[in-house]
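Sequence design from tokenized structure. All designs in this work follow the same two-part layout: the structure record, then the generated sequence. An example of the structure record is given first.
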């Protein structure tokens, strides 16, 4: 069985005497890219699909050549298959890293099935497959990992296998398979010392990790293999920064070749209270980090360890004379807990100052002109003789663009935007003098456990859902790879219509904390484009006449049916804001919808616009008149309005039919019993129907009310004393308590839309205390025996939103 998981090196290709017709045909195609043989490769792949060609290394090479051509030519609707595939096979992880957003309460325990892999005969065209390559979860935690690897070998025997792992549960039999057949392994290390490792990656044990790495190294020697190629991942923060120079010697011992260092991005403080915060970011101590990085570079050179990408950009922050405080072992403010942080004692002498990156000058041409000129020059037949002989490229998709750009003397530089904060992606293009066009949409496919997709790890959103189909159906527009949005993403790359987030990625260091506002703006603009394309494909003709309103929606007024006939302005934002919110919450084209809200006028018309039927339930008579005025003015007729006049849903029958979804305004819980609402509403849902709760009150909101009203807020104070389990009138929610609370009402958390909410912000340096301690201080303040505890509100939930499914 030796070697069956590994494809042969392509340097050994040349078996033109093979009986496989597609192998023979492969060698008949002229490999000289100067001859513009795009159509040859396209026909080859399409015929291989239709005739169900046998798996071969030549299929992989041909597919990669086609992907390179499609990238270079900016083709939107492609015939190639992804070159690299990363798919989550499980979302279970055995680590609780303090920099990671993984949460056991969000685990679905779903797994990639054998049936899905059996259908995926298109994998024979792909070069690499990485289980859990970009998602949260440990691939070797899958109970049938060996069977999965066997299925992959059967489907695509020439596939290059790799994985991302923490290396802690590689059983001897798994290690044996990895040592024989894997091509690469990305191992999350994140520490160079025992105490830091076990603090950072709780509950993993240092000794077990070391033993597993030693066993893997011994197995590779036993089989006489240099592969799998080992790369270490290191998420750097102030808790593991000082020991970073010690890492290369440890990696050398285990046979690692590469090191990938990423700055810690503060995870959302949801569900657990021991995650690192922004105070642990290395960007807060740039001088110290800069010194450590220079030491790391020296140690990597000494131990023959390559650093795979430029270390995080710090020059932008080096103007400050001193760092903003270096955390010590007793400094607990960098994590949301009272656990100590391990740092090295003492300091290091600063080495020579690094050379700042050169300033990129403004080009007279924009990127679209550069790319257009490159394509025109390359396609001009009479210019072919200007090109020197070119061997078969490895088809990165940019090699062809590089040739076109360099031989047509096109300047391929752009302004960096801020002179010093360069994007990692841009630096790759710049160092190789390449036209800065991203190749990921043509080459990379990332699939999570819910079949949501991305083309790169840092993309702004999940893309259309992936269907595990066969090769013949793979390129249908109903599937993700040639979905109209993917076609738009590819076709606009490098043009003025490019997805804004892609432009940001190439021009700015999007991982830098100082660029958060620019990143957020690019994400919002890109989301809007995505929504416009997706909503246009739904086939739904929006009902009502919102688009006929001539003035901006926030200036629109109507005369109400209230007793005083006053004029009302129901909206405060642009039309696109409300439409996109409906889409984001998953209520676009779901069927029959029930909305229960105190102020239904805000959302009910937009739900009616894109759904079959909307039933509006409100307890406020005046609000029922306003929403009806809006619906009638805009000519909606697909709704029913019911005034909620009692305290129980049992006394307020809604509709004899069940609903596909319920939109619940969280303010309802301020006036009604939680049990009545959440026991009653699921009975109105079809099995699997969705319930979306929007901005239910959190502990921060109740505390804010108490501080504002003083002694007149005894009821709210009593609610806080009773805790989150209190389910009467005026109850509150916490993001961490949603999962257990839903089980009581026969609802399950929608894992694809985890709890979210707004948090209280007071002061950056506020001391963190527990909810119980805060309530005690609040009671002392109300009684006049303590100081105002407002400063301790920081980080507490003001509101909580979540999505649930009817069991």
């Amino acid at each position: 069985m030796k070697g069956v998981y590994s494809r042969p090196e392509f340097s050994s290709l040349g078996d033109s005497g093979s009986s496989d017709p597609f192998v023979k045909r492969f060698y008949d195609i002229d490999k000289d890219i100067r001859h513009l043989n795009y159509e040859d490769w396209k026909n080859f792949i399409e015929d291989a699909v239709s005739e169900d060609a046998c798996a071969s290394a030549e299929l992989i090479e041909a597919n990669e050549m086609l992907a390179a051509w499609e990238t270079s030519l900016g083709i939107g609707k492609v015939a190639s298959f992804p070159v690299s595939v990363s798919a989550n096979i499980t979302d279970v992880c055995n680590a609780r890293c303090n920099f990671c957003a993984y949460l056991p309460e969000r685990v679905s325990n779903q797994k990639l099935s054998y049936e899905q892999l059996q259908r995926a005969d298109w994998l024979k065209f792909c070069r690499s497959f990485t289980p859990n390559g970009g998602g949260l979860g440990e691939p070797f935690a899958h109970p049938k990992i060996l069977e999965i690897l066997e299925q992959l070998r059967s489907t695509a025997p020439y596939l290059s296998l790799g994985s991302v792992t923490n290396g802690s549960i590689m059983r001897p039999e798994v290690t044996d398979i990895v040592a024989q057949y894997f091509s690469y392994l990305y191992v999350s290390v994140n520490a160079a010392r025992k105490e830091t490792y076990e603090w950072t990656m709780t509950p993993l044990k240092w000794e077990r990790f070391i033993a597993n790495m030693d066993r893997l190294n011994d197995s590779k020697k036993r089989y006489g293999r240099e592969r799998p190629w080992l790369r270490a991942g290191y998420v750097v923060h102030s808790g593991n920064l000082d020991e970073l120079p010690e890492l290369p010697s440890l990696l050398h011992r285990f046979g690692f070749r590469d090191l990938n260092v990423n700055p810690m991005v503060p995870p959302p403080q949801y569900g657990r209270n021991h995650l690192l915060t922004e105070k642990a970011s290395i960007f807060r101590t740039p001088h110290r980090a800069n010194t450590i990085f220079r030491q790391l570079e020296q140690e990597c050179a000494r131990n023959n360890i390559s650093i795979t990408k430029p270390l995080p950009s710090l020059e932008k922050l080096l103007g400050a004379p001193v760092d903003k405080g270096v955390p010590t072992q007793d400094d607990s403010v960098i994590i949301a807990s009272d656990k100590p942080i391990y740092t090295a004692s003492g300091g290091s002498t600063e080495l020579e100052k690094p050379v700042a990156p050169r300033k990129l000058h403004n080009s007279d041409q924009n990127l679209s002109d550069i790319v257009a000129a490159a394509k025109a020059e390359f396609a001009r037949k009479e210019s072919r003789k200007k090109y020197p002989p070119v061997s078969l490229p490895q088809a990165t998709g940019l090699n062809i663009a590089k040739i076109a750009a360099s031989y047509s003397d096109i300047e391929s530089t752009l302004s960096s935007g801020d002179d010093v904060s360069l994007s990692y992606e841009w630096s790759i293009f710049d160092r190789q003098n390449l036209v800065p066009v991203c190749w990921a949409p043509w080459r990379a496919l990332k699939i999570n456990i819910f079949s949501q997709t991305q083309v790169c790890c840092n993309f702004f959103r999940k893309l259309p859902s992936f269907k595990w189909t066969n090769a013949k159906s793979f390129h249908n527009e109903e599937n993700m790879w040639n979905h109209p949005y993917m076609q738009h993403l590819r076709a606009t790359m490098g043009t003025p219509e490019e997805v804004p987030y892609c432009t940001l990625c190439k021009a700015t260091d999007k991982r830098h904390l100082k660029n958060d506002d620019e990143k957020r703006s690019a994400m919002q603009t890109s989301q809007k484009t995505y929504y416009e394309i997706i909503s246009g494909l739904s086939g739904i003709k929006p009902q009502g006449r919102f688009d006929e309103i001539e003035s901006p929606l926030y200036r629109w007024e109507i005369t109400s049916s209230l007793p005083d006939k006053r004029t009302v302005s129901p909206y405060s934002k642009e039309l696109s804001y409300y439409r996109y919110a409906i889409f984001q919450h998953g209520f676009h084209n779901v069927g029959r919808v029930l909305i229960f809200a105190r102020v239904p006028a805000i959302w009910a018309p937009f739900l009616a616009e894109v759904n079959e039927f909307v039933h509006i339930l409100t307890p406020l008579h005046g609000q029922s008149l306003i929403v009806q005025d809006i619906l009638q003015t805009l000519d909606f007729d697909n709704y029913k309005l019911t005034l909620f006049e009692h305290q129980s849903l049992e006394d307020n029958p809604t509709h004899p039919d069940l609903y596909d979804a319920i939109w619940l305004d969280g303010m309802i819980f301020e006036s009604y019993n939680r049990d009545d609402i959440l026991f009653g509403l699921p009975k109105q849902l079809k099995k699997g129907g969705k319930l979306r709760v929007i901005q239910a009150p959190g502990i921060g909101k109740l505390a804010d009310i108490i501080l504002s009203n003083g002694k007149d807020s005894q009821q709210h104070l009593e609610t806080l004393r009773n805790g989150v389990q209190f389910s009467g009138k005026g109850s509150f929610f916490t993001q961490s308590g949603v999962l257990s609370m839903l089980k009581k009402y026969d609802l399950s958390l929608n894992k694809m839309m985890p709890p979210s909410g707004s948090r209280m912000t007071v002061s950056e340096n506020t001391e963190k205390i527990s909810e119980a301690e805060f309530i005690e201080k609040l009671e002392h303040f109300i009684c006049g025996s303590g100081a105002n505890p407002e400063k301790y509100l920081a980080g507490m939930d003001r509101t909580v939103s979540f999505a649930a499914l009817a069991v």
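Residues 516-537 form the longest helix (22 residues). We note this feature because it recurs in several other targets discussed in the main text.
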